[in-house]
Amino acid sequence: MNSYLFSNLLKKGVKYFCFFFVVFFVARLFFLGVYGNSTELQHEKIGLIRAFLVGARFDVSAISYGFLPIMLLCLIALAIPSRFNKQYAKFFHVFSLISLLLVLVAYLSLIIIDFFFYQFFQSHINLLFFGIFYDDTSAVLDSVWTDYPIFKIGFIYLVVIVLWIGVAYYIKKRDNIKLLKKESNKEYLWFVILPLFFLGMRGSAGEFTLRREHTNVSTNEFVNSLGYNAIYSLKFANSERKENIINPDINALLANLGFTSKSEAQEVYRKGTSAAFDEDLQSITATNEFLEHNPPNVIFLQMESMSNHYFDLNNEKFNLLGELNDVLPELYYFKNGLSSNNGTIQTLENLVLGTPQTIISQSIYFDTPFSTSIAKPFKSKGYDTYFLTGANISWRNIDKMLQHQEFDFLEGSNAILNKIPNAEEFAWGVHDGFLFDYIFDKLKESDGKKPKFIFGLTISNHTPFEIPSNYKAFPIEMSKEIKSKIRIDEEMAYANFYSHQYAASELGRLIKAIKASPYGENTIVVASGDHNIRQVFEYTPEEGFLKRSVPILFYIPEKYKPTFFDGNVLAAHKDIFPTIFNLSLSNAKYTYTGDNLFDKNQTYRFALNGYEFIADDKGAVSMENNKPYYYIWANQEKRKLKVQKELDQHGQIMLDKMKSIYIIQSIKIFEDINAHQKAKR
Questions:
Q1: Which among 3, 143, 157, 678 would be 20 to 30 A from 589, CA to CA?
Q2: pLDDT at 623 over 90
Q3: What pLDDT was estimated at residue 135?
Q4: What is the pLDDT of residue 130?
């Protein structure tokens, strides 16, 4: 065996490996410096050390996979005759330089993507990452060019590549391969690298290879997040993507979550609540003679990135609501609301279909007519049903999916532009104000015989943050305190603040217009954010509720007003349409997803986000890295949480509640899919 050549090349490989390790270490250090809160982390020194040690294991594993070809060449060197040492060494140098450069660029790209992904979502690469490939490509690229420092990123690539080439040539110059050399016993010591290398690939000497659970080194979510690197984040996200491919196997679903039957899951969910639904998950509104003869128009607006945090920050100098400020005191405003999910398409499908299983519109089951559709109860009562958006109506294939959900009219940006030729557009479509004008025109088209249900999807408060030229903005002035809390440059922060103000202001203008019109007496308007925006502010684990929180707003005419209202109750998207159905429809069947927010007899209320975060009056449970974390409220305003060392009895009840609602809703979706597939055969 040519142990001399083997050991010499392996020495080079180890030095190359160290360069990669330093790149990963610096990236993690930079991530900590940018996103870490020094005040919060000063008590987490032990946790930080553990996170960096775990991170080193993830880094070594990821780098080892990239170095497999190099290790293979080292092993081949054992069989190379000594007279070919120099030629083989030259080939090794050239191959290493080029192949590892490609690996370096790939890894560096993922590190940079993950860094900015965290800036936007406050999470490492996750399932939402794959949605980029299904979005409007030109709009995504436009947002990237506008929102991210392309030239600085290019400079980082240049510096790292130049350093790599310099280091590689330095190593080559220092290590001269001799044509022939007598073997030494010391060279055989390098064979110990082989088992260490493959152990490094595995990342663990234990029973399990590296998993998410290995990053659980603290009760602090951010500290735990430091253990990841971009490569493993993508790997875990891809595994979740495969696991989340919709597989309508009800028995497997029940077994995976520890339930034996649908009825058991329903029983667990009902425990301690006054939730009313039958075995088929059907509920029914009360008989109401007034509603029978006076069905109201209903407009629901899914507002892009409308944030409860921004509602809290809003004041005269820092005006984030515009004209909505004028009507907000007259609205029913639920201050403690959570979005169903943290992405637009996931929230849309959850609102329309009550589904934990997404993304349906881009799955093979897009043509399933779901019995859970929110349009169905309205159709049963003689409504015309509309889905209207400023985006392209074929975005994410939603038109193909929604046409099977009992919507009579599906119209997007092209329809608005045909009606309003001067409507202003940006990367994602037509701005919200023009969509609202279009919705108001639809009310005017009423023949007086059939009420209307309109679901509106807005897009303006989305990167790249732009507002129409005809919009007169209200003043926004950041205080020193707010400036100290933003984690992006001031220019982009202001762009987002004005974008949020514009969307909210146009919502206020629409409500004003409806109130001042004949439709103000018989039109209910409901609005909520599809998710909070996480790009501007850093949210600590103790602010986990605020990070997910969105406003839920109701404009209700006098004749339809409820007798009970408490804006401080825990609420979520799951409760919106059960509330709307009970406000507007008499003796109407609908699929249960949540509770009527205006029912004073509800014995237990909770808010839910992503089926991974649940909150009630006592606290919250958050699933992080496949581990539940239990929090209690730190203040009455329900904006701060305090982590607990263990999941107590109440925390377990909340966790069971979250699992059970996920199961019973998933089963309902699966039953519809299976029935439709059977009918197609």
A1: 678
A2: yes
A3: 59
A4: 76
The H or E element spanning position 14 is: helix 3-35
CA distances from 277 to 33, 167, 197, 254, 274 (A): 50, 68, 57, 20, 10
92 and 12 in contact (C-beta within 8 Å)?
A: yes
* pTM of the complete model beyond 0.85: no
pLDDT top residue among 179 and 38: 38
Q: How confident is the model at residue 210 (pLDDT cuts 50, 70, 90)?
A: confident
Residue 180 confidence (pLDDT): 47
Burial annotation 245-276 (CB, 10 A radius, 16+ → b, else e)? ebebeeeebbeeeebeebeebbebbeeeeebe
The mean pLDDT of 58-77, rounded to a whole number, is: 94
Given a contact cutoff of 8 angstroms between Cβ atoms, the answer to whether 230 and 124 are in contact is yes
List of residues 6+ apart from 667 with CB closer than 8 A: 250, 253, 254, 262, 265
Residue of 101, 92, 87, 89 whose CA lies nearest to 167: 101
The 3-state DSSP composition of the chain as helix, strand, coil percent (nearest 5) reads 55, 10, 35
Neighbours of 62 (CB within 10 A): 25
Is 50 exceeded by the pLDDT of residue 179?
no
How much of the chain, in percent, has pLDDT values that exceed 90? 73
Give residues with Cβ within 8 angstroms of 587, minimum separation 6. Answer: 284, 285, 286, 287, 288, 292
pLDDT at 182: 53
Using DSSP, state whether 557 is helix, strand or coil.
coil
Q: In Å, how far are 189, 630, 644 from 43, measured between CA atoms?
A: 43, 19, 16
More confident residue, 427 or 405: 405
Backbone angles phi, psi at 343, to 5 degrees: -135, 150
Q: Is 401 helix (H, G, I), strand (E, B) or coil?
A: helix
Count Cβ atoms within 10 A of the Cβ of residue 44 and give its class: 0-12 exposed, 13-18 middle, 19 or more buried. buried
Cβ-based neighbours of 201, under 8 Å, separated by 6 or more:
61, 64, 65, 68
Note whether 61 and 211 are within 8 A (CB): no
Mean predicted lDDT score pLDDT of the chain:
91
Residue with tokens 């929110």: 374
361 token code pair:
């519109």
Dist CA 629 CA 607 (whole Å): 16
The DSSP call for residue 295 is P
pLDDT digits (tens, 9 = 90+) for 586-597: 999 999 999 999
From CA 459, how far away is CA 443, in angstroms rounded? 21
Q: Quote the pLDDT of residue 129.
A: 79
Q: Is the dihedral of CA 673, 674, 678, 681 positive or negative?
A: positive
Q: Are strands 384-389 and 409-411 parallel, antiparallel or unpaired?
A: parallel
Residue 669: name the closest of 460, 271, 370, 306 by CA.
370
